[in-house]
Amino acid sequence: MEIVLAIIFGTLFGFVLQRVGAADPDKIINMLRLKDLELMKTILLAIGVSCVLLFAGIAVDVISVDHLSVKPMYAGVTIGGMILGVGWAIAGFCPGTSIAAIGSGRKDALFFFLGGLVGAGVYMAMFANFKDSSMMQPLFGGAVSLAANAKFASIISDVNGVVVASVIGLLLITVAAMLPMSLRK
Amino acid sequence: MYWNWKAGGLALGFTFLITVAIVQPIGVSTEFVLFDAILARTVNPDLVVKDESAKSGYASSNAYLNQSGGKMAKSVAKPMNYGIAFVLSIALGGLLGRLSSPKHKERMQQVPECHQRNFSNSYGQRYILAFLGGVLVLWGARLAGGCTSGHMMSGMMQTSISGYLFALGAFITAIPTAILFYKS
Q: Quick check: ipTM above 0.90?
């Protein structure tokens, strides 16, 4: 059953990534060049809507709070993000979109995927050397969210989680709507 | 040719929401390590072993796979699991997406236009850049503990501090890199 769900949701995810243009490196690179922000608007709207509905769903017991999986914060999160950003801009792919792109017939995505296997393999092999370094120590309390919930600690713990998530979500949706289609000519 | 941001944003948001509602948040980059480990295990079968004392029942000689009570070691030993099936199915979705596009019969531009404008229409050069990009993206994603899916989309959806600070790091380098690298 678990595998059936994996196939359904994985296929849905790949389908949507392809249809919004996220599996197209030109679309990603032009977003990062601030020339074509449609995909940025798509992403912001997606996060905003899912954020509000996720916390609303938890509040009315339609979604189990056990399904939340807040990842820990440490300096490596932002440093890793910065390294990822360079590769993302050069290749125009990220891990998920490269796999959707391979399915859609892009050969360059296959080379990105192979490079990804090398990058992940090198990290796995060298992890023992810096797993105890200061870069890996929890920051701001580690696995912490902004909106309060019954599973993880929260920074804004004295306000109802649905209210905080709704404010954040509506803010993201507003930015998605206000953002122009292009910031550079 | 692609969905506009309103339709696309709602579809993408729904995908993340339904997946977390029924199973767990979407994430992709962990599976790259698992693919590596599954390949490595065909050469070195002792990479992952059964270990009754470990929380997952499996242990690994590799410190990374051995984290969290050998959770990843177990996924290597039992590769028919949710995460791997999910990630492989993304390719099927990409294929269906292309086939259902109105212009799917047009020949695909294999070298991106951004690349052609700034460099050349050579396949080899584009493949090398895509490969190098892949190395950086997955190395960075593993240091961060997630990628654009797990940290940025799923993380920000859950209002995770880590998701927001990951996205900040990614855009801070990605925007100037793209502007300088692809000038025209």
A: yes
